[in-house]
Amino acid sequence: MALDITEVAKRSGVPASTLRFYEEKGLIVSVGRRGLRRLFDPRVLERLALIALGRAAGFSLDEIGRMFAPDGRPRIDRRVLASKAEELDRTIQKLSAVRDGLQHAAVCPAPSHMECPTFRRLLRGAASGTIGAPGNKLASGRREPEYSKSAKPGKAPRFRRRNKNNRGKP
Amino acid sequence: MALDITEVAKRSGVPASTLRFYEEKGLIVSVGRRGLRRLFDPRVLERLALIALGRAAGFSLDEIGRMFAPDGRPRIDRRVLASKAEELDRTIQKLSAVRDGLQHAAVCPAPSHMECPTFRRLLRGAASGTIGAPGNKLASGRREPEYSKSAKPGKAPRFRRRNKNNRGKP
DNA sequence: GTGCCACTTCAAGTCAACTTGAGGTCAAGG
DNA sequence: CCTTGACCTCAAGTTGACTTGAAGTGGCAC
Q: Which of A114, A145, B102, B103 has the fewest CB atoms within 10 Å, i.e. the most exposed one?
């Protein structure tokens, strides 16, 4: 009944090294060994799907880990889901704006992009931090850098860009 | 006329350390110094906006760097823009699906998410790799890991998940 | 003229999510 | 019984985009 690690890897598409890594992180558990070889309960596949989904939604592995009750059953706070959905939605808005701008710029007849009003508008959007780069901060819970040392608390903290990712209330 | 680095930081919202970093990477140039202190042409602000936009669109700093002609003027290939826009669009599709699933799960009356058909469908999507996690690979040009050593070419390469991010032609 | 402090440089650290490498072990096949 | 290959462990490396720390410097206010 139990699947060995290669079987899980094959069926889930998740590399064995990642499975070991996930186990170490407590995201999945193996139910035993055959020799050295890990064995997993087939339900690990569902668990992995859940993890993939969480990642797709922008949760970090740690966040995902916290979504499983100590007994292993997923106990996902609906408020967390809702707020992540909202966050995701804001991200989608921004990306859509960028996509539209890109699309326009791609066909825009202006000799240089700099002369295209649409492009310039997009640029202002990006400049004013309404957009925020994707990649590592896109939909993920992102720590603010500290700046506690270099920017002393008394010293007009208006320096640092606020809400790069629309973190505060709009 | 020239702005010193703090002025640029203040106006652009980009920390001075990042400005130095960008200069080192060749993304911006300083036009001189006052003492040690860098001075920038005001147009650096537009350049920074362009960089922010590029990041928002999912370009890496290196890609962005390549978008500036050696003379410094942006010379952005429209085909690149179009393809990035497409990529972005695919990303948006996926994120939208996830968002909808999340939204549903947040209000779904099923006692456990596992009993909600919508949630399970979403899960299958995530499992089959149709979704792909955001974060660092979301809209960015992402190198495929190598696997040349551990998975020898003769050995049924069906092991590794293909197109986690819909990389091949649809 | 002299002190301060914000700047400078350069090297190294951080973060997340994995991957890779070296060296070890073991079940199974011949 | 012995080889072999696939797994094991543990430590270290990777990637991108920065940040941070230590040690140095110089313009400007006094």
A: A145
